[in-house]
Amino acid sequence: MTGNTNIAEREIGADARPESRKYRQRSEQTSRLILELLERLQKEGGGAMPFTMEDFNRQFVCEHFARLSRTERAEAMKKLPPEERLDGLTVEQIREYLDRLSAEQPALVRKPRRQK
User: Fold this and answer.
1) Cα–Cα distance between 41 and 48 in angstroms, integer?
2) Which of 10, 40, 52, 101 is paired with 4 by a 20 to 30 Å CA distance?
3) SS3 at position 107
4) Which pLDDT tens digit goes with each residue over 16-26?
5) What's the whole-model pTM score?
6) Where are the alpha helices (DSSP H) in the chain?
7) Are 15 and 46 spatial neighbours (Cβ–Cβ below 8 Å)?
8) Nearest 5°: CA angle at 68, between 63 and 71?
């Protein structure tokens, strides 16, 4: 391979389908979708892609969610209803978390009631 060979050309082996060998990456900013699809195509031995765009998006999010910062993950989770945010947690885990939150917050001081 020459020094001018771009990333996509280097990643596509001789055993890839002819359609994928025709792809030439034009810049370093090529979308993650194209590079991800080329990687999958190569891993699967050049067979037909067995999933839809919806499947790809779902899998991409699952694989890359952990790479987000804690703040970014929290923002994404806020978009889910509370029931879905708690899925997978046991009642005990939820109680422990609530106990920790209660211990961290100062107790509310109530005003005394007026006597009539």
Assistant:
1) 8
2) 40
3) coil
4) 455 555 556 66
5) 0.42
6) 7-11, 18-21, 32-43, 53-64, 70-78, 82-86, 91-104
7) yes
8) 145
